[in-house]
Amino acid sequence: MAKMIDAQINGRKITVEEGTSILKAAQMVGMKIPALCYHPDLPAWAACGICVTKIEGSPKLVRACATPIGAGQNILTHDPDIVNVRREVVELILANHPDDCLYCPRNGNCELQRLAAEFGIREQPFEKNVRSLPLDDSTPSIILDPEKCILCGRCVKVCQGMQNVWALEFIGRGDGTRIAGAGDVLLNETPCIKCGQCSAHCPVGAIYEKDDTAKVWRALQDGKKHVVAQIAPAVRVALGEAFGLEPGTIVTGKIYAALRRLGIHAIFDTNFAADLTIMEEATEFVHRFTTEGSTLPLISSCCPSWVDYLEKYFGDMIPHFSTAKSPQMMMASMVKTYYAQKQGIEPEDIFSFSIMPCTSKKYEITRDEHMYSTGQQDLDVVITTREFARMIKQAGIDFLNLPDEEPDNPLGMYSGAGTIFGVTGGVMEAALRTAYHMVTGEELGKVEFEMVRGLEGIKSAEIDIKGTKVRVAVAHQMGNVEEIMKQIREAKATGKEIPYHFVEVMACRGGCIGGGGQPYGATDERRKKRIAGIYKDDSQQTVRCSHNNPYIQTLYADFLEKPGSHKAHELLHTKYVDRPLYQK
Amino acid sequence: MPVSTTEELKITDGLMEFVQEWKNKPGNLIMILHRTQQEYGFVPRKIAMDLAKVLDVPLAKIYGVITFYHFFKLEKPGKNQISVCMGTACYLKGAGDLIQEIENVIGIGVNQTTDDQEFSLESVRCVGCCGLAPVLTVNGEVYGKLKKDQIAEIVAKHRGA
Description:
The complex is a heterodimer of chains A (584) and B (161).
Chain A: E1 4-9, E2 12-17, H1 22-28, E3 52-55, E4 61-63, E5 74-76, H2 80-95, H3 111-118, E6 142-144, H4 154-162, E7 168-171, E8 178-181, H5 197-201, E9 207-209, H6 213-222, E10 226-231, H7 252-262, E11 266-269, H8 270-290, E12 298-299, H9 304-313, H10 327-343, E13 350-356, H11 360-364, E14 381-384, H12 385-394, H13 416-419, H14 426-440, E15 458-465, E16 468-476, H15 481-494, E17 502-506, H16 524-540, H17 550-560, H18 566-572
Chain B: H1 13-22, H2 28-40, H3 45-55, H4 59-68, E1 80-85, H5 88-92, H6 95-106, E2 112-113, E3 119-124, E4 136-138, E5 141-143, H7 151-158
Parallel strand pairs in B: 1-3
Antiparallel strand pairs in B: 1-4, 2-3, 4-5
């Protein structure tokens, strides 16, 4: 057990673990010390200088984020001197920051704007010096606007540390420092995997999602288009935050209702397609698992950032990748084939879009020729949870007072297994529920697999399927995946027994509920609440396993024949290629 | 003179030997980058990418370093390197005028290279002979107590030499 120390915050006694930062210690007694570079996901690195505090008896100001509180110290967090210094730091940052807040994508939820308001800044005492730097809109997912960057470094720490992608770096030094694609090329030419965690952590408007809402509005106005929407699992437990609800509040019914009020013609649920993904992926797994000499482990491929990462960093692992498309793309294929046929609508008259917690999903829709399996682009547009919240507000929909409505059939009803796709471990758990049935022909008594749940970076377990041991591993937050891949590589190279049979990877911390397109402010505290929301949604479903979803059964009976059929392969599976880390 | 494109460049045997020697030592990156610049006159992108692979260091990190330190050049420099001292003494004695005059004579500004690859111009901090201010060096050869009308002569002396 860690050593505990006694200290004081503004004269109030506090006992904390040795090594606790002043900032965290202050939080424990209800004092909020402002900071722009600090984020609880990241190591403190004292870049912005706003969190300065005083240690009583010392003439120095210390940065609360990076200074551990010492035994016996009394920390002053908010005396008038400190507030003045902080105000001046904010003023200095503002001197290098554009003033076009009204036209900024972060207008209303910018951390710098909020601090300027809180400190009551009314004038610019320092000479304005805003550098003119070009916007980087090279990726389909995120936009980098270095002019707005305050050099807090959160994006760099996220990209290099948490995600281990190394697509962003500081270029230059001193007042010439700027944020740029690694190697000073456009972001799309770097190893960027479009996960958007940089945008989710940016305190200002320097990195943000590409806004595609105009395309949806246009399609709705067109009048000739049959507009079809799908919503991802993780959206339903986070969208409410944009309307003041607690993280984890399930708003699925209100989302359907809002979509109907926007004039969407058919409202489907990506959760249904997650069930479909499970049918294909579990079939693939059971086939590989029971066929001598098959390539194992099977590695999940639902996360487009993970797909991109694997293609760039672990090209040798491609044969291990599940060929099943992601739920988003499976739904898109079914909308423009199965649904179009059923409704007698020409696929080209359909405008199909999705609402995703994810910026990378915008990239996925055009990533290769398999995303055109219906003879045209399968999915027309992706908008993130944040964009969807804006659309609801623009449309004047009183979201909180909407009734709960139902999705449309035949692609709307989902099982509990479908909904848990939105959290780390969920794809694995959903697949195990169905794989158990496929192997044994029986139903599970207890469908929960708790050992793959939770926020631990790497989770591994041995599952007993009636005497057959299945070893599984689950990783989330891209930086955690390397270890698993190395274990597999090493086992293959040395001819040892493979460490796992089935591996699930999601690029974002906590899985899609912590996605780069979700409402701002994700911390582990919020992630846990969103995760709890997802598992609650699962437990509330009458059908808990994908193979028991009656609409899935009908889809196979009427259209796809059986999991892994030729038709399923044409529409629901894809291929992967080894990609260079740098395009330039 | 044929200018080799960065695509054709490979890590030379000499550089590779140096890399192998330093690979596992702490602080190796900066040493290897110094050696790289010594080898090519600058840090070519292709070589930086090759080094990233050999050293298992992200290219992001390499560019973080080579753009942080002014010493490193990212573009192939001209045959003749003109360095104008902008240290305090030289600055006060009119080094800015020298740079302006060079721009007039060879048509390039600081950190640029002439199209014919003859000259590159850089401004440097103290060269260490303030008594001779203002000072510039061409390929290390020092010219002191300069007046701007001497620039054309110095350029002519080195052109094509």
